[in-house]
């Protein structure tokens, strides 16, 4: 996300299906690739007075995949970098738990379901969502939910926190993914 954001774009539809890992035994084997740029938007716009962050607005059309959309997306707010990062937190939650608390939530219409999921996310604290998992995950979600609309996220701190967790759990970077045939 940091690379995309450094190019002045926000993604607005973070979900597992939009990430790919390079082909095994190639130069890009360990690189995460982002695909499907149909929802990206510039958040820094060129103006006569120089680059300017887009303005906050409400009443926007819902965008993104409900399971992973930020709370702001559910309630029609203009999205920014913080929303991409919040969506990543819901992906982490899926990877950790295997499902999301709002999976299977029923509604009469897609819009009603989108709003119900948003209400559920908003009602649950990061600590509740990540209960039973390292506090670094809840801390990450708390931080990104509290970012101001035009605030630059501290990507380095997030990277450092998760790397520290990796070390604290005595994990080893052997260069293999769980699905690599070499690791079986």
Automatic annotation (TrEMBL):
Q: Which Pfam families match?
A: Pkinase
Q: Which InterPro entries match?
A: CK1_Ser-Thr_kinase, Kinase-like_dom_sf, Prot_kinase_dom, Ser/Thr_kinase_AS
Q: Which SUPFAM superfamilies match?
A: Protein kinase-like (PK-like) (SSF56112)
Per UniProt, residues of the Protein kinase domain are: 1-163
Which N-terminal residues, if any, form the signal peptide? none
What are the protein's GO molecular function terms? ATP binding; protein serine/threonine kinase activity
EC number(s) stated in the UniProt entry for this protein? 2.7.11.1
Name the UniProt record assigns to this protein:
non-specific serine/threonine protein kinase
Q: Which organism is it from?
A: Blomia tropicalis
């Amino acid at each position: 996300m940091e690379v995309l954001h450094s190019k002045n774009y926000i993604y607005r539809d973070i979900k597992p299906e939009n990430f790919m890992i390079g082909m095994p035994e190639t130069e890009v084997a360990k690189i995460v690739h982002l695909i499907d740029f149909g929802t990206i938007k510039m958040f820094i716009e060129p103006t006569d007075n120089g680059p300017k962050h887009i303005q906050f607005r409400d009443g926007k059309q819902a965008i993104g995949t409900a399971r992973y959309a930020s709370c702001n997306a559910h309630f029609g707010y203009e999205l920014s970098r913080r929303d991409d990062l919040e969506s990543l937190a819901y992906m982490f939650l899926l990877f950790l738990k295997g499902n999301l608390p709002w999976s299977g939530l029923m509604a009469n219409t897609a819009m009603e379901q989108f709003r119900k999921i948003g209400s559920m996310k908003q009602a649950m604290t990061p600590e509740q969502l990540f209960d039973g998992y390292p506090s670094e995950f809840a801390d990450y979600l708390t931080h990104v939910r509290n970012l101001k609309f035009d605030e630059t996220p501290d990507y380095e701190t997030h990277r450092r926190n998760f790397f520290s967790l990796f070390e604290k759990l005595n994990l080893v970077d052997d260069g293999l993914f769980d699905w690599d045939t070499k690791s079986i």
